[in-house]
Automatic annotation (TrEMBL):
It comes from Amphora coffeiformis. Keywords: Membrane, Transmembrane, Transmembrane helix. The keyword Membrane applies. GO terms for molecular function: metallopeptidase activity. InterPro entries: MetalloPept_cat_dom_sf (IPR024079). This is Uncharacterized protein. The chain crosses the membrane at residues 199-219.
């Protein structure tokens, strides 16, 4: 029988073949009607009703034998039909590229008994010996039974697949847990590689070098004085960082209330003469006039602080190196509480030819020599316009102003024949410096100043050296040297830090016979 892809085509082909064979059988039955019938064992096939020709009172004839054979052939055709139907159904389910729906299930052709005009159906089964048996049933029962069995097999297979998948997942999870546990049990601590060790070594070397550099620049280069840069809370006074001092709070020179008359010794290099004499004039020609200053040029002495002179102010300069100060003033106070002598030093290391800074520092250190305190020690506020103010703008604050002159007036009074000055009830709030007349017409210049032969006799061009006796006895001189060494080395024995800030420091040290040394340091802004 030829192969067909469509169930409907198969059914039509079977129907045509059935009709042909039925016609042929009818012809054979007509030809053999005269022959006697033989009994045929048809126990395996039972028709729904025998043909009319057979049951007309005659026995089993030849027609019955042919009928049995025809039924057997139909059973064989049905069996082959269902086999091909199963194969076609399985091929449609397994094909992933063919998306068209499966062909509808068409029942096989129903054979028709030509003698009785009744349809005959068969239940198909195959015995172990290969015999074919058929029984008649209702139309379409074989197809329904086949579909139920196929559906049952599918459901059973899906349940089996689900169970297999569940067991597989459980086995995988158990295996993964065992693998993780085995890895944790066999895991070893990390081993440091050579590159990792080198990285740590480089980091430690950099940190060590930074620490060494820090101590070198701030300790060794600072002449071994760590107290100059290490913060110590005990070094600060209990007062506010700046509490403006009044005349009663400072130590003055001994005076009779008619101004201060003091000589200033010039032990400076020639390049400082311009700034020295400018500062002397600024302080001497103020209003109110409370100072009578005279100058004398002495031998250049960068260590003038080692040779102070009683009753005089001595100024010198030199390149003292990285001392952490650019200007320093030492005031020697006697046992009676008055200034005994004063020296000022200017460190060329920090100036680099900056004239504004040089003039500011000269004016500032001479102001301490007269006994003046700072007018302000706060940075970041508005400049006060005088050289006793801590400022970063030194070029615009390098002269005294009315507040400084008023403070001197309250300390020493007016010099003889000076212009009258009525002091305000409240001290001036750092008023700007008044405008002065030319030097020959100065208001407030005393007769003593004009007649004093030593007053400003140095003009910066001709230096006439004078020999001045210092007036110190050996005990006071030795005590002064010891006090200076204790302050400059940072020792605490008998040393008090009155003030320490970012731009200045004030220290005190006790001496013999009730004397003491007060040191003012002006710190650099850079370098």
């Amino acid at each position: 029988m030829p192969e067909y892809d469509d169930d409907e085509a198969i059914a039509r082909a079977l129907q045509e073949q059935y009709n042909q064979e039925d016609t042929q059988q009818q012809r054979q039955v007509s030809a053999r009607r005269s022959r006697s019938a033989r009994t045929t064992n048809t126990n395996n096939v039972v028709a729904t009703a025998p043909p009319e020709q057979v049951v007309r009172g005659q026995g089993i004839s030849e027609t019955d034998e042919e009928y049995a054979r025809r039924v057997a052939r139909e059973e064989e055709r049905l069996y082959r039909y269902y086999q091909r139907r199963q194969q076609s159904h399985r091929s449609n389910n397994s094909s992933s590229s063919n998306n068209r729906p499966s062909a509808p299930i068409i029942p096989p052709p129903v054979p028709v008994d030509t003698n009785t005009s009744r349809s005959v159906t068969f239940d198909v089964c195959r015995s172990d010996s290969g015999d074919t048996h058929g029984t008649t049933s209702n139309e379409g029962s074989a197809v329904a039974e086949f579909e139920d069995e196929e559906y049952a097999r599918r459901v059973e297979q899906e349940l089996l697949d689900e169970e297999v998948a569940r067991r597989y997942q459980e086995n995988e999870e158990a295996r993964a847990s065992r693998v993780v546990a085995r890895q944790v049990a066999t895991e070893r601590p990390p081993r440091y590689s050579f590159n990792c060790f080198c990285g740590y070594l480089v980091f430690a070397t950099v940190i060590g070098a930074a620490v060494v550099a820090f101590f070198y620049f701030f300790y060794i280069q600072d002449n071994g004085k760590p107290r100059d840069w290490i913060w110590d809370p005990s070094d600060f006074a209990d007062e506010d960082p700046f509490d403006a001092k009044k005349p009663d709070d400072v130590t003055p020179w001994r005076s009779n209330g008619r101004g201060l008359n003091v000589e200033v010794l010039n032990a400076l290099e020639d390049n400082w003469d311009e700034f020295f004499y400018t500062a002397i004039l600024d302080w001497d020609l103020g209003y109110p006039d409370s100072l009578t200053l005279s100058t004398a040029t002495v031998e250049k002495d960068s260590n003038c602080h080692l040779h102070p002179t009683q009753g005089k102010v001595k100024v010198c300069n030199g390149d003292y190196g990285r001392t952490s100060w650019k200007g320093i003033n030492e005031v020697h106070i006697d046992g009676s509480g008055y200034i005994y002598a004063s020296t000022a030093r200017l460190n060329d290391f920090y100036f680099d030819g900056n004239k504004g800074s040089m003039q500011y520092t000269m004016c500032h250190e001479l102001g301490h020599a007269w006994g003046l305190p700072h007018t302000d020690e706060t940075f970041g506020n508005k400049d006060l316009g005088n050289c006793m103010d801590y400022t970063l703008n030194e070029a615009d604050n390098n002269t005294p102003d009315l507040s400084n002159y008023d403070f001197l007036f309250r300390l020493y009074g007016l010099v003889p024949d000076a212009e009258e000055y009525i002091a305000p009830t409240v001290a001036p709030s750092y008023a700007p410096l008044p405008t002065f007349a030319p030097i020959g017409e100065l208001v407030g210049v005393s007769q003593q100043q004009e007649q004093s032969p030593g007053k400003n006799k140095d003009n910066g061009k001709t230096r006439s050296l004078e020999v001045v006796e210092d007036g110190y006895d050996e005990e006071i001189r030795a005590s002064l040297a010891d006090a200076r060494e204790r302050i400059m080395s940072g020792k605490r024995d008998g040393v008090r830090t009155v003030y320490r800030g970012s731009r200045g420091e004030v220290h005190e040290a006790d001496m013999v016979k009730g004397h003491k040394l007060v040191v003012h340091k002006l710190l650099p802004t850079a370098r």
